[in-house]
Amino acid sequence: MAMTLKAGTLSVATAFPNPPWEVYDSKTGATGGFDVELATAICEQMNLSYQQIQYKGENFNNIFDGLANRSYDVVISGTTITPERSQVALFSKPYLEFSQTIAVNRHKVPKVSWITDFQGLVAGIQKGNTSDYVAKRLLEKGILSDIKYYSYHQIDALIEDLRTGKIDLTIKLFPVLSWLIKDKPELSLVMEVPTHEKIAIAYAKDNQALCDAVENAVDALKRKGTFAALQRKWFPHSLLHWQVDVQE
Question: Once rounded to an integer, what is the mean pLDDT over residues 175-179?
């Protein structure tokens, strides 16, 4: 039997904003996005009520603490599986896969043909985001001059700093970054880093029963076509194919 903290309810931790997985309207407080609609569909499939819990921490990696201390049942928040996260949380089978992309301010960086064109630049990165791995590799290689860190919820401030030239580039998963810069002509996606990150649902380490139950629900949604419909709605764009391996 599914082990939820409250009978009949699935409590889901999500970090906003992180479009198109998590969309947040700062004027109305309304939420949406792929993960919100996926969580809603999962709860309907399992005959559970959906309780949305908005994660407020500065560092995304701390969201998993709430699983261990029983603050919520699951994390559904565009979450990449990593070895470090797998030590503190149980992950489902991946349901999507994307890679990191790099965006620049075209006025400050008018021409990009290779990573050496990022020489001496400053990257803006969210705390606890897997893009930090790419940024740190570029810093270690002596390409970036610095990394400026932002609270996870300061993504709008980060993008505004990129637009106004206070930072030179940022790195995020392709769907997120393409969404965030789509109405900002000063900014451009210039390169994909093939990190091939697998996105999954996270659970408390000892809650295999809930993991299995939700997995069955997701499989049912895939058979019915619901999952594919959500994927077409929220991830309609093609990936870049201008790739660079930062491990080289």
Answer: 94
